[in-house]
Amino acid sequence: MRSRANQLAFAGEEEAMLKLISPVLLLGLCLASCGEQVVVRQTEASCGDGEIEVGEQCDDGNAENTDGCTNACEIAVCGDGVTRKDVGPDEGGFEACDDGNEEDTDACLSNCQLAQCGDGLIRLDIAEDSVGFEACDDGNDIEADECLSDCSLARCGDGILREDLQEGVSGFEACDDGNEIDDDACRTDCSLPRCGDGLIGPGEGCDDGNEDPTDGCNNCQPAACGDGVIQEGEQCDDGNDVEEDNCLSNCAAAACGDGVIWAGHEACDDGNAQQDDGCTGLCQEARCGDGIQRVDLAPEELGYEDCDDGNEAEGDGCSDRCLQERCGNGRVDMGEACDDGNDSDGDACTTGCREAVCGDGIQRNDLEQGAAGFEECDDGDEDESDLCLSNCQAARCGDGQVWLGREDCDDGNDDPNDGCNNQCVIAVCGDGIVNREGEVCDDGNDVDGDDCTNACLQAQCGDGILHLDNEICDDGNDIDEDDCTGQCDEAQCGDGFVWAGEEACDDGNGSNEDACLANCVEATCGDGFVHGGVEACDDGNQDDDDGCQADCTLPDVNLEGLVLYYDFESGEGTVADRSGGVANVGTMVGRNTFTGDARHGQFAMLSPEGATDADKLGIGGDISDLDMDGDYSFMAWIKASGGGNGAGIITLGTCCNPRQGYTLNLQSGGDLRFWGGSDRDDTNYNAYARNVNLKDGQWHHVGARVSGNTIELIVDGEVRGSENITNLPTSPSLLNPNEDHGRGAPSVGGRGISGAVGTQIYIDEVRVYRGVVSNDQWRQAMEGR
Q1: How many CB atoms lie under 10 A from the CB of residue 212?
Q2: Is residue 227 part of a domain?
Q3: What are the CA-CA distances from residue 778 to residues 532, 631, 784 (Å)?
């Protein structure tokens, strides 16, 4: 403890030092306080406008000088000479006073709290005998040491026994009864009375100050004591041995402190001068409220006193049970919310005897995480943007509060795909996390040519970015008619899109027989390709004498040599009028009928499944015109499917004998066969068009062309089989030529030659020529001309 004298000696030096360091301290405080709060604007300062500008530490926009920002736009700090009034005693920054100095020896301490006895600091600004004067201040409330609890120095006679010194040390007190009477239980020098000290004390009949037993006073008792007569040296003599009356047996007058209870006058007498035991210095039993604190009992013993202020009032520091009313005594006294008797600030009851609450600035550490009231931190403010939230939980990503300086955002959820990711960073394209709010993808790189663009959109044709894995080009539009199509393919002839400025047309089919050629040039007469439905022919020249006119039409059909032609357009009944040639009309025999399923025109003929010789188109009458003595050509349109049999297409003459006739036949396997009988040397001959699959349910144009010794089988205008045979018969052998529809008569359809019965077959445009039909004429015939 610093004494008043020593403190006065240092006062001058401290004042000088404080004057020197105060500006530095204030600057440090300002810097520490300002931190991130100061936002400097490079404009002329105008204190009070609510905006922090150059030269201002703060600006709260008001004229209040006692809040956190002064009227000089400086942050309020302890020592600035202005007492803050905007915060309460339990809040950070509270000031009870502020005298603008760092002096701890005046009425206002350097921490801006009011000076008071017991704060450990001696006031030097008050004269002795003035209210508030302190001779000492040891910062405790112990009365038995050098400095009393009222900040006065302990002295002998103050009625308070010092207990901090050993016997023999200056200032030691054996007793202190607070008076200047020497013949009671405590001498005025605070020593205990004793026999032989020359002073008659309690219980002594005499005291001559010596140890001579032969004089009139021996062992502090007169020699003639007890005879009932008061003699010199006796205080009294009642002639009895009763100790409880007004005269003791040693002729000492009964007195408090003699160790004998004087009946009717004393409640007790323990023979000592101790005021603070069970018997007071007035020989009354100690009681709570007598103004004397008992110190002879332990706290757990009955009658123990923490204090005794001589009244029964509560709330004055000493209760009506003589227990100190102070925080930390383990009892809830008036003005306390709790008192757990310890000095721990981190439990449910603070050292200020206030129930711990979140926001009091004191972190509780007595609870397990998850328990009600658990605190990870407590910074005493409600700022949700600092390290400690207002619910006393440590700031962390995902708590829903943005931690300034550490987090960009905090949406309080664990959804990584919204605008704020799970690291509390604002979602941006390229962070590798798909943000549903504006991103389709996010691959975390800056490569624009992969599956996810730098705009976090799914790569797609038309986005203007070339994706090498699946795009040849990408011009950023969906126009199919420029050099990069809407499918991100380079424009090319045959893609089905007309490339503006490069192509006249593009139908995407590669055909040279429609309006747009395979080279993306519009079809024109003379380009060498027959435009179906528009041109009858196109030989690529302007020669009118080669079978195709210069205007791409065929010359008039030369029917010369046509000896048999049926188009079946009569369409009903049993008679098929000949459409040309010299042969007679045909007659539907058996189950053969007309059908509306035609290749040209409206009608064709149907030869049924299981056809025999009785099911056909028979040709009767005079058929001598059908004799063949040179070249000849057979042709027809057919459609067949399924079944395991073949079918006759065109049959001239009988079968199976020398010089038999000719048959153009559909084989059971779908091949085409031209079958002849014996030649002039009685040798059979055959010609085949194999692997042509004529039983596929589609219309096919089939025929045989005989020139010299060569037989060609033609399917859909293309030669598919050829044989070179000598000694071909010049004409068929016609049995019973005048028998209508006989077995040897010419016929169309029927069973054919490769089975006992025929398969179902549709037949249209049947033609037989005497002579070889040219390719152009063959094509005309295919077109039904």
Answers
A1: 10
A2: no
A3: 16, 15, 10
Burial of 148 (0-12, 13-18, 19+ CB in 10 A): buried
204 CB neighbour count, 10 Å cutoff: 26
What phi and psi, each to the nearest 5 degrees, are found at residue 575? Answer: -100, 130
CA distance 334 to 535: 120
Give the CATH number of the domain where residue 661 resides. 2.60.120.200
Whether 664 maps to a domain, the answer reads yes
> Which amino acid is present at 116?
Q
Q: Which residue from 580, 532, 528 is spatially nearest to 557, judged by alpha carbons?
A: 580
Number of domains forming the structure of the chain: 1
Nearest to 345 by CA among 325, 372, 327: 327
Residue showing tokens 């027989």: 513
Contacts (Cβ under 8 Å, ≥6 apart) of 469: 450, 451
What is the token pair recorded at 493? 């002839």
Is residue 121 a part of any domain in this protein? no
- Is 256 within a domain? no
How far is C-alpha 175 from the chain's CA centre?
Answer: 79
The confidence score (pLDDT) of residue 584 equals 66
Residue 40 has a pLDDT of 40
Tell me the pLDDT tens digit for each residue of 452-466. Answer: 988 899 888 988 899
Kindly give, in sequence order, each residue whose CB lies less than 8 Å from that of residue 734, ignoring residues fewer than 6 positions away.
Answer: 623, 626, 627, 653, 654, 661, 744, 745
Q: What is the per-residue burial (b if ≥16 Cβ within 10 Å, else e) of 253-291?
A: bbbbbbebbbeeebeebbebbbbbbebbbebeebbbbbe
CA distances to 187, 199, 445, 740 from 196, in Å: 14, 8, 107, 189
For 660-673, the pLDDT digits (tens) are 567 888 988 999 98
pLDDT above 70 as % of the chain: 85
Per the structure, the complete domain to which residue 621 belongs is given by: 562-782
The mean per-residue pLDDT over the stretch 409-416 comes to 89
Say what the pLDDT of residue 730 is: 54
